[in-house]
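hiii so my PI (J.) wants the whole complex modelled not just the main chain, which honestly fair. so below is everything: two entries, each one labled with what it is. i double checked the lines twice but i was tired so who knows lol
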Amino acid sequence: MSPSRLVIIGADAAGMSAAAQARRSRGPDDLDIVVLERSSHTSYSACGIPFWIGGEIASADDLVARTVQEHREKHHLDMRMRVEATAIDAAASTVAYRYVDSGRTGSLEYDQLMIATGAERITPSIPGVDATGVLGVRNLDDGGEMLAALERDPQHVVIVGGGYVGIEMAEALRGRGLRVTVATSGDQPMSNLDPDMGVLVARAMREAGVDVHVDARLTHVLTDAAGAARGITLQSRTGTTLELPADLVVLGLGVRPASGLAEAAGIAIGETGGIQTDASMRSRSHPNIWAAGDCVETIHRVSLAPTAIALGTHANKQGRVAGTNLGGGHATFPGVIGTAATRFRGLEIARTGLSEAQARLAGFATYSTRIESTTQAGYLPGAEAITVKLITDVASRRLLGAQIVGGTGSAKRIDVLATAIWNSMSVEAISEMDLSYAPPFGPVWDPVLIAARKAVDAVAARNT
Amino acid sequence: MSPSRLVIIGADAAGMSAAAQARRSRGPDDLDIVVLERSSHTSYSACGIPFWIGGEIASADDLVARTVQEHREKHHLDMRMRVEATAIDAAASTVAYRYVDSGRTGSLEYDQLMIATGAERITPSIPGVDATGVLGVRNLDDGGEMLAALERDPQHVVIVGGGYVGIEMAEALRGRGLRVTVATSGDQPMSNLDPDMGVLVARAMREAGVDVHVDARLTHVLTDAAGAARGITLQSRTGTTLELPADLVVLGLGVRPASGLAEAAGIAIGETGGIQTDASMRSRSHPNIWAAGDCVETIHRVSLAPTAIALGTHANKQGRVAGTNLGGGHATFPGVIGTAATRFRGLEIARTGLSEAQARLAGFATYSTRIESTTQAGYLPGAEAITVKLITDVASRRLLGAQIVGGTGSAKRIDVLATAIWNSMSVEAISEMDLSYAPPFGPVWDPVLIAARKAVDAVAARNT
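here's the output for the full assembly
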């Protein structure tokens, strides 16, 4: 009997986790695994690109976790690089593809199909956005272009977007000595933090010499006669416009699920634009089609609403779940709570669960508390400031969300609060926990516990 | 009506937390709070003493969180310093005391009594242990003596005991350029880690030039004609003896509950030597006597056995609970899980829950898994090694204990596993959690998740 065939579209985190996991239980004689990937790269860390641009790591090779050759040899995968899937025929169980370089086309039958097409960069439809010198930071090719552009010695870089990419690229480019401006349409950088926490990030950026413009939506890229970017125009909500010179424009306006191929094939797409799957990562609409990673939507365990969050951590886990099931085992993906972290120089930034605005949208009545403490015992010379904000459900006293901004050792504390939210803990229960203490790692009441205690006191005050 | 009187014996973490908390709801006209403290200090960080000895902080004053004067003024407390409680008459509701300096004695009536006498250093009954140059590191006076001894320019220090004090004093004294030997009767330093993790600590100590002797029990302190320490004798389990020169001997053999005063008064003492209380921190035997901090025993939430762990974190929480109840509110202490952390130079060390040996004693059948990963994404130049060990219950797949040894950013990850244990999570459930990821803070699968995944795989392998 010839082996059945699994075709995987996309060779990054989700696709390759699924392939590796499926291979663990089903050998090449049992399951033929074909991977179609339109780029030349596989299994790389997109999150590491800013560190490459910033010069902390020497080469894009360092970002590649496993080469194509390693995938072929270690897992007996039929890796077809620079081959783009162009259409899925779900009725016929075939995928049409095209060789990116030669343009040659073909078609492939599958028994099971796995869609792992990832996310695509959001590019605004505005004049000049296609100009030379307007770049994204989504994949290794983007990174290469950026480094090439930096060789041309730009003087003034404008980064549009104040999210993870905006923050991290501001650090990288400021570190290379460029004049850097960050423009965000939000009230503060880091729109998935509440503004009272985002302002701490803005302050640190300004102190590092980065110009930060808030309430500033990109409306034009100004170009010279040769079609190269020479500036941008920003507009506030009230209509005030601001023109800034720029010879390099970095777009960091976020991503959306790359679900167009699936949608064209009639595969169920949700309100977030992501492919809908069940808990096993099987498509809701097609039993022999699976999907994982940035192209799917999942459930937010706190809001209980569909969400699409593009993160390598989810992609890896979802790919592994799909691969386990494709391999004949049983696994499910339990949803997400939106935990994330980043850094601007010495300032660590992290969040989990719902922000105030997200909680309101999800129907919760909340109260927020914020505390300031130190990352080490206050008497040690290395102690730095840390601010912890908690968002608590008025009805149940459950912790709904948390945000942390502070010095070295701050960000990873978010995982304690993520674990607490995962377990539906009340702020009372959190405040009682037995967490570690030693002077180099925090004060005797860890900032997480101080924050929970303040939330307990606040709810007690509400109730009296 | 005259106010009722609360007498508190001991002015450190537990006692002063209780006093401050009780005062929040009951003013001086309602509750007279008298605090008896035999030393001159109050509310200091005993855990900070090694950093003072090591020169990281300039003065003992930095370790004092709140002065006697501040307690008097802020909380209207009747602070009686250098006054030692010598006996409790529970039937008469009186405490006998003695002025340490004048020897004058007296007696005080109480309506409620709170015992917060802390822990006392374990000193072995061996020849020479009272010699000049044999010192402990329990309180600020010990610290002052140690600094005075260091002025006399000792050449060779032997630290007896490989626990927190041993590790931290080795760092402090090695940092001052002394020749340092650590001797422990255990198989490795850090006996509350399993030996396969403790050996990583021993290795780091040896690399830093500290001599480490294991299976080495202190049997003699050798003295010169003037009664000063000049060496020690160690003995292995098989009887082999080893003599080491030493002009300074630091005892770090642990502590036990200072419950003698309570015991003499007939107050219920448990098998651990700690005062027995209910969840409200009220003495099991005497309704108007309360106790908190290092002098009490509490319940270990995993072993479900009584335990006495001397830690400022518990003392603070228990004191707060007692104070809330004494103030007319309602609070309970939920027990502990033995979370703790320390550092030897760049190596961070942390643990929570049960070790293998503790789990066996508590009646669990366990399996252990250990993984190695990095503290940052492996491609970043600052990435350091981190080892995570999990101890899992065979019967329920619940996580029972965890141990972490590694570079910067390792130790505080124990709090994620502590939170998981607090919530009785299985290793499967832990492996599914949505934890933060960014390259400066870890690899895409956090070491905690990699460890949980390995435990899941191990249990799956056991069951097939």
